[in-house]
């Protein structure tokens, strides 16, 4: 029997309750603790209680080493990766965020923020275009307003979410897009251009142009969970070459008959992009191994707990 209720969208997660909206009004409602809800989820609500969580189109999550999977945002169309021009770009982090967006079925857009204090904006954009062929790169400044119209246009009629490091200017950009002070902003340290986690919770904002944006706390590290479509999209040119390698388990580093190395030697593939691909694949393998090790450890902990419980039952008076 299907659950009854009216459709609502989760706007904010407030612990024992969630704030939901029907587009005209908002209300706090209760939900079962066995139900994992993310900002952006669609739910059915009856008598101020969530009766059912509806299926998600997309789900962005991170793997937390201690707490396990952490839901970031649901039903998003666009993942906007924000990097500040006041700090060096790190290729591994840029490609990781973009691949994750593709992997969940969302469109990635990369924003270089704070261009009012950058010395070589064109150089940053050129570098990102080389790293991320086919990905839309936008530049913005919340101080001057440059580029913010393009971000609003990209979100029109769609749900997006900002991810990126603390201090990159995500909350400031939310405020500009909302034409109001809805997100807390904070100081950025001059020594390393890092910011505090001013945004302490995720919240869905309805933009004046009809789009929606989910503001997120800064993410210092994001579990590398991209395994399929994200990797194929990010390095589709290299993935296509690998099918022509002589050996199916080719590592694309020194093996004979490697089509990838042949493309590098012929000048058809840049050495920089080839090395970036190898680094990315290595990160994937490391992440998979860590996840595997955690699963094994969790399995043994469960077995140990079950054995301990059984032993305690046997030791009780009248136990088996």
Summarize the structure.
The chain has 320 residues and is of the alpha/beta class.
Structure description:
By secondary structure, this protein is α/β, with parallel strands linked by helices. It has 3 domains: 6-55, SH3 type barrels (Roll), CATH 2.30.30.140; 60-215, Rossmann fold (3-Layer(aba) Sandwich), CATH 3.40.50.300; 235-320, Orthogonal Bundle (Ribonucleotide Reductase Protein R1, domain 1), CATH 1.10.40.50. Helix content is 33%, strand content 23%. It has 8 helices and 13 strands. The protein has helices at residues 91-103, 121-131, 148-155, 170-178, 229-234, 236-242, 259-265, 271-315; strands at 6-14, 17-21, 26-30, 42-46, 49-53, 59-64, 68-74, 78-84, 107-113, 136-139, 159-164, 203-206, 212-215. The protein has a 6-stranded mixed sheet with strand order 10-9-8-11-13-12, sandwiched between helices. A 5-stranded antiparallel sheet has the order 3-2-1-4-5, with no helix packed on it. A two-stranded antiparallel ribbon has the order 6-7. Strand 1 (6-14) and strand 2 (17-21) form a beta hairpin. The chain is flat, with a radius of gyration of 23 Å. The model is unreliable at 184-200 (pLDDT under 50).
């Amino acid at each position: 029997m299907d659950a009854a209720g009216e459709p609502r969208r989760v706007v904010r997660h407030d612990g024992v309750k969630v704030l939901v909206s029907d587009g005209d009004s908002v209300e706090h409602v209760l939900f079962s603790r066995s139900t994992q809800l993310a900002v952006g989820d669609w739910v059915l609500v009856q008598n101020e209680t969530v009766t059912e969580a509806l299926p998600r189109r997309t789900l962005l999550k991170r793997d937390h080493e201690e707490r396990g999977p952490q839901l970031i945002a649901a039903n998003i169309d666009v993942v906007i990766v924000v990097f500040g021009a006041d700090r060096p770009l790190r290729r591994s982090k840029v490609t990781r965020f973009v691949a994750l967006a593709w992997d969940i079925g969302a469109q990635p857009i990369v924003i270089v923020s704070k261009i009012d204090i950058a010395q070589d904006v064109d150089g940053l954009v050129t570098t990102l275009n080389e790293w991320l062929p086919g990905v839309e790169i936008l530049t913005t400044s919340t101080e001057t307003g440059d580029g913010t119209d393009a971000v609003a246009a990209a979100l029109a009629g769609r749900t997006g979410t900002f991810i990126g490091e603390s201090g990159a200017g995500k909350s400031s950009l939310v405020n500009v897009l909302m034409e109001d002070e809805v997100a807390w902003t904070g100081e950025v340290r001059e020594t390393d251009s890092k910011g505090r986690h001013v945004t302490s919770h995720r919240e869905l904002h309805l933009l004046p142009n009809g789009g929606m944006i989910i503001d997120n706390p800064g993410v210092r590290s994001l579990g590398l969970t991209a395994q399929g479509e994200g990797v194929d999209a990010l390095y589709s040119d290299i993935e296509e070459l690998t099918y022509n390698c002589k050996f199916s388990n080719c590592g694309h580093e020194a093996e004979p008959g490697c089509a990838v190395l042949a493309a590098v030697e012929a000048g058809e593939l840049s050495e920089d992009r080839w090395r970036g691909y190898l680094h990315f694949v290595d990160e994937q393998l490391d992440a998979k191994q860590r996840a595997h090790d955690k699963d094994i450890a969790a399995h043994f902990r469960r077995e140990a707990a079950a054995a301990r419980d059984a032993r305690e039952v046997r030791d009780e008076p009248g136990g088996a």
